[in-house]
Amino acid sequence: MIHQTFFLFLVALAVSIQKTSSFSAPRRGTNRLFLDTAVESEWEALLPIGIFHGITTNPTLLERAGHECTIPAVLSLTKRALNMVGCDEFMCQAWGISSEDMYDIGMQLSEVDRKRVVIKVPVTFEGTKAASKLIASGVRVCLTACYSSDQAIIAAGLGADYLAPYLGRMIDAGKDGMKECRRMQNIANGMGSSTRILVASIRDVTSMGDLMGHGMDTFTFNPEITKCLFSEVLTSTAAEDFEAAAKRCGGES
């Protein structure tokens, strides 16, 4: 969870932004950053900052946030997310053992808005079959739980919108996660695919920055990583100095 002081700061910032502007999307270029949480209070606090393109969830995150993993519950959550300023896309995951189950659930979950809802399915044999049918039915798909760069061949060959490698978990499993992610991007580029490599399971800002330096531009990360983006002490000190100088010169809030 976000530190209470930091969280209160973000809530105040969100209110300020919403009061002073209609909050049109900034010119982010090609990058897409997603907020990886199913906690609605964290959406409210962090989306107005303006750096995020959307929200990613999965059954594990739903469970942590106290949500039910049922079609009505996820549909309700999806509608709330898409009504929030700053959420251009919402990712939710279909479940089921068979491709038929995942396809049926994915079709129902995407009914809210086929342009803005992305359905996640694991990059397994059954998940890929479900993804193929979903794409043929006009549903946007993210193949998830990716642990090998070779799996990028599947996503690019299928024409999925996204492939989500788990960077931190690959490293935990003894793999060179950074190298795997870079190779996925090279495979997608080499196949002429528009599939985005959506790097997930990010443990630190430095790793994300290093991958960005290699041309990767699509990431999903949790509120704790977001907090780290604002944790530079020198910047905070400079901001305090500016404010003190402004007050000495007659500035008023």
C-alpha end-to-end distance: 30 Å
Gyration radius, in Å: 19 Å
Helix content: 40-55%
- The CATH architecture term is Alpha-Beta Barrel
Number of helices: 12
Strand content: 5-15%
Task: Describe the largest sheet.
Answer: 8 strands, parallel
Strand order of the largest sheet: 7-6-5-4-3-2-1-8
Task: State the oligomer.
Answer: single chain
CATH superfamily: Aldolase class I
| Shape verdict | globular
Q: Assign the CATH class.
A: Alpha Beta
Counted up, domains total: 1
Structure commentary:
- Helix content is 50%, strand content 14%.
- It is α/β, with parallel strands linked by helices.
- The chain has one domain (30-230): TIM Barrel, CATH 3.20.20.70.
- Strands 7-6-5-4-3-2-1-8 form an 8-stranded parallel sheet.
List the helices and strands and how they pair.
Blueprint: H1 4-20, E1 32-36, H2 40-46, E2 54-56, H3 59-65, H4 71-82, E3 89-93, H5 99-109, E4 117-122, H6 125-136, E5 140-146, H7 151-158, E6 162-165, H8 167-172, H9 177-190, E7 196-197, H10 205-213, E8 218-221, H11 223-229, H12 233-248
Parallel strand pairs: 1-2, 1-8, 2-3, 3-4, 4-5, 5-6, 6-7
Helix pairs in contact: 1-2, 5-6, 7-9
